[in-house]
Write a structure and sequence with these properties.
The complex is a heterodimer of chains A (about 200) and B (about 280). Chain A has about 200 residues and is an alpha/beta fold. Chain A has a single domain, classed as Rossmann fold. Chain A is built from six helices and ten strands. Chain A has helices at about 5-20, 30-35, 45-55, 70-80, 105-110, 160-165, and strands spanning about 25-30, 60-65, 85, 90-95, 125-130, 135-140, 150-155, 175-180, 185-190, 195. A seven-stranded mixed β-sheet of chain A has the order 1-9-8-5-4-2-3. A three-stranded antiparallel β-sheet of chain A has the order 7-6-10, with no helix packed on it. Chain A is globular and about 55 Å long. The N and C termini of chain A lie far apart (about 60 Å). The mean pLDDT of chain A is about 95. Chain B is an alpha/beta fold and about 280 residues long. In chain B, about 25% of the residues lie in helices and about 20% in strands. Chain B is built from seven helices and twelve strands. The two termini of chain B are about 35 Å apart. The model of chain B has no long low-confidence stretch (mean pLDDT about 95). Classes of the chains: A alpha/beta (about 200), B alpha/beta (about 280). Chain B: InterPro entries: PhnJ (IPR010306). Chain B: One of its GO terms (molecular function) is 4 iron, 4 sulfur cluster binding. Chain B: Pfam families: PhnJ. Chain B: Keywords: Lyase.
Chain lengths: ~200, ~280
């Protein structure tokens, strides 16, 4: 079986729609990811490539964060015709698993946040993480969430604070998509408010 | 299914463009994201925005329902349904509960929408401020600055002139306390259904080249004043002459021969479902 660029990418898109409209909802891309050709996955995960194939074309610019950034950029460019560009101009920022520590924060701080007239000209940040089902507990609130939603994310950075700073002037801001090694997808659009869910210790 | 066309009519490049715009629209509830709006085999202004959203979303396992002012059988709805099912081969239905994608012109169905459904509304005029500001550049600035006094003033003038807000349909709403949005020409009766909706609502304006969205569980408030609160159409003491339903949106019909006024459900599939529940016909 090979990846069907019409039907499989339609499924990926619907999962992106589900996860973006319901932050905290984790979508499973493993079925589609298993169809991505081994030889195309040069340096990046199959699920990241799926998102690139779903959304990227010659009108899109992107920037890869990884020691192998040039190599991965070339692959994505050849597969989608999207153009690699600078951090501050890119429509999509791709933070790979092997990116230097601090890359996510750097991306969040420098990504384009749109303008008040055109807030949609902001960047999507797509992050490869170890797991979107274990790790630090985060409490989510905002549009798409009934009351609150609890998610677990395994990222060793102060990205929550940087994101909050970046998104403080709504509707300006950045939208985040996390994918993990098991091809599970979690989206945090700019409207979602995150609180680190610290366990309160009781003095008994 | 007609295989001379691409699946879902569009080429993949066109779908990608709409998909990127739609994801941004979901991330910024109520904000109108510009998109390319391709030429469609139906005229602009006849539901092309909704149709393009439907085509960009639809997959082989979807079940599609299309309604036009509450009716599954009007020309516009039938044509759109035919085009989509001819180019995708997906099943269509009249039953709201069975559909996964519901494209609608000017109504939100009576049967409450569920989590796994997406409602797509066709929008003729996406800009709620256009009535008093003809320049797109200016309205974008007003939205950017959250400067909505004109929208309130418009309603205030209606109250001064006519004693109440006279927006028959398309009564402006405030989404997520940020953007004033045109809910498409749904009757005021349907406005409250947008608030904290269980289903995702996408709105597409083909001629005006805009898509926007109301994610599930998002605050949507109809604009009003403390002393002149928003009032949906009231059908108190009235019921459908066919199925007897109350508390639904009713059409007022006049029999010209007898001059008699009667009321009937606007949502035809809801009416038929209710009738069938009461008196099942056919052999069991």
């Amino acid at each position: 079986m090979t990846l069907d660029i019409v039907h499989d990418l339609q499924s990926v898109y619907r999962k992106l729609v589900d996860s973006t409209s319901r932050p905290g909802l984790i979508s499973d891309l493993s079925k589609q990811a298993s169809l991505v050709e081994e030889e195309d996955q040069k340096g990046c995960s199959a699920s990241l490539l799926l998102i690139a194939l779903t959304l990227f074309d010659q009108e899109v610019s992107f920037k890869v964060f990884s020691p192998q950034a040039d190599y991965v950029s070339q692959t994505i460019n050849q597969l989608t015709y999207a153009k690699p560009t600078d951090l501050k101009k890119a429509d999509f920022l791709l933070i790979l698993q092997d990116a230097e520590k601090g890359s996510l924060e750097e991306a969040i701080i420098n990504a384009k946040a749109g303008t008040l007239k055109n807030p949609h000209t902001s960047a999507f940040i797509i992050v490869e993480v170890d797991s979107v089902t274990s790790g630090e507990a985060l409490l989510l609130k905002g549009p798409g969430i009934h009351t609150t939603e609890l998610v677990h994310l395994d990222i060793n950075e102060n990205w929550v604070e940087s994101r909050q700073e970046k998104n403080k002037e709504y509707p300006l801001g950045i939208d985040l998509i996390f994918i993990d090694q098991n091809h599970q997808l979690l989206a945090l659009p700019r409207t979602t408010q995150i609180t680190r869910n610290r366990v309160i210790e009781w003095d008994m | 299914m007609n295989t001379a066309y691409n699946f879902a009519f569009f080429d993949e490049g066109s779908k990608r463009e709409i998909r990127r715009a739609t994801l941004k629209a979901i991330a910024i509830p109520g904000y109108q994201v510009p998109f390319a709006s391709r030429e469609m085999p139906i005229g602009r202004g006849w539901g092309t925005g909704g149709l393009q959203l439907t085509l960009s979303l639809i997959g082989k396992n979807d079940v599609l329902k299309v309604i036009d002012q509450g009716s599954d059988e009007s020309v516009n709805a039938v044509n759109i349904k035919k085009l989509v099912s001819d180019t995708t081969g997906v099943a269509t239905t009249d039953h709201t509960a069975e559909a996964s994608l519901i494209q609608s012109r000017h109504r939100i169905p009576e049967v409450p929408l569920k989590k796994d459904q997406i409602l797509i509304l066709q929008v003729p005029l996406p800009e709620p401020l256009r009535y008093y500001e003809p320049s797109e550049n200016e309205t974008k600035k007003l939205h950017g600055e959250k400067e909505y006094s004109g929208a309130w003033l418009m309603l205030f003038e209606q109250i001064m002139k006519y004693g109440s807000m006279t927006t028959g349909a398309d009564h402006p709403v405030m989404v997520h306390d940020r953007y004033v949005m045109a809910p498409s020409p749904i009757p005021r009766f349907d406005n409250p259904k947008m608030n904290e909706s269980e289903a995702l609502i996408l709105l597409g304006a083909g001629r005006e080249k805009k898509v926007y969205a109301v994610p599930p569980y998002t605050k949507v408030v109809s604009l009003d004043f403390e002393d002149y609160p928003f009032e949906p159409e009231s059908f108190e003491d009235k019921h459908c002459r066919l199925c007897g339903s109350t508390g639904v949106f009713l059409d007022e019909l006049v029999d010209e021969a007898t001059d008699e006024t009667f009321y009937q459900c606007n949502d035809t599939s809801y009416c038929i479902e209710t009738l069938n529940e009461v008196e099942p016909f056919g052999v069991k």
